[in-house]
Amino acid sequence: MKYRKLGASDLEVSTISLGSWLTYGVGVEGDQSKACVDRAFDLGINFFDTANVYGRGAAETVLGEALSGRKRDGYILATKVWGQMSDSDRGLSRAQIEKQLDASLKRLRVDFVDLYQCHRYDPDTPLEETMEALSAAVRSGKVRYIGFSEWSPQQIEDAFALKGVERFVSSQPQYSLLYRRPEQKVIPLSAANGVSQIVWSPLAQGVLSGKYRPGATPPKDTRAGSETMGNMIGGWMQPEILVAVQKLKPIAEEAGCSLAQFSLAWVLREPNVASAIVGASRPEQLDENAAAADLKVDPGLFAQAEAIVAGLRPAR
């Protein structure tokens, strides 16, 4: 496993991290979740990402159980706030940040989280209030560092412009060989301001593993074939995308790796990416993904792959 510094923080995170979106506490049983977490440690993965809204607390609860008993300084834990937790609980107001942070800490069975992220931007709360509340959380010792996810360049710049508040150290965008929008503004802006990317969906929810064939029914043991985990993947399951992805396989073979490993290595070629978040419902899936951290791929092969998928977009 390789490690990279997370922005202007003192955190050294594994370049492959384990996430819990649509999996732990939702589509994956507790025993399997713990087995995946245990395997992550075996592979050198030290970074775990979740959110309060995943299963409305279920993912945090399961992850907290899986991490319980381990030394707190032996892993880096990130969660998020903003999502709809009840009819009246949502957003980034001071009251919500205080309430949701305490609830997350309780579910995760810890006294602090290493990284607390704004899951999205909250247009209904003044940015000053949000940043002051996050800063208070850091100064209280309940949070070490703060980050954001899927904020616009203007929203990011507005946060950087505020005085007397804690600085963001991380950005969590969707980024993959099939989705390169962050390269336009978010990555350059982040790199200039001490912010690293923590990438979600680097495999386009598994499509970039090449396991979904055009015209074929998705296997039941995959995300696309699952009733509980497959509700967000439909946009990527377009025939033209699946056809193009199959054309990437020979390039990955030339690189001496699987397509999933090739796709993760492509994400990690970007210096501003600190970690690529992967999901896993079985421990052996982590074995393959973690191996991508050590890959050295000819840039020419990456260029070939980029040309094949250029212009493709997920359906809405």
Would you mind describing this structure in some detail?
- The protein has 316 residues and is of the alpha/beta class.
- Helices cover 36% and strands 14% of the residues.
- It is built from 10 helices and 10 strands.
- The chain has an 8-stranded parallel barrel with strand order 3-4-5-6-7-8-9-10, surrounded by 4 helices.
- The radius of gyration is 19 Å and the shape is globular.
- The two termini are 36 Å apart.
- The relative contact order is 0.15.
- The mean pLDDT is 93.
Fraction of residues in H or I helices:
25-40%
CATH topology description: TIM Barrel
User: How many structural domains in the coordinates?
Assistant: 1
The largest β sheet comes out as: 8 strands, parallel, barrel
Q: In terms of quaternary structure, what is this?
A: single chain
Number of E-type strands: 10
Query: How many alpha or pi helices?
Result: 10
Q: How does the overall form come out from the CA principal axes?
A: globular
Residue windows where pLDDT falls under 50 for at least 5 positions:
none
Termini distance?
Answer: 36 Å
Radius of gyration: 19 Å
Structural class by helix and strand composition: alpha/beta
Please write the CATH class name.
Answer: Alpha Beta
- Proper CATH architecture: Alpha-Beta Barrel
- The spatial strand order of the largest sheet comes to 3-4-5-6-7-8-9-10
H/E element string? Answer: EEEHEHEHEHEHEHEHHEHH
**Portion in beta strands:** 5-15%
Arithmetic mean of pLDDT: 93
Kindly report the name of the CATH homologous superfamily: NADP-dependent oxidoreductase domain
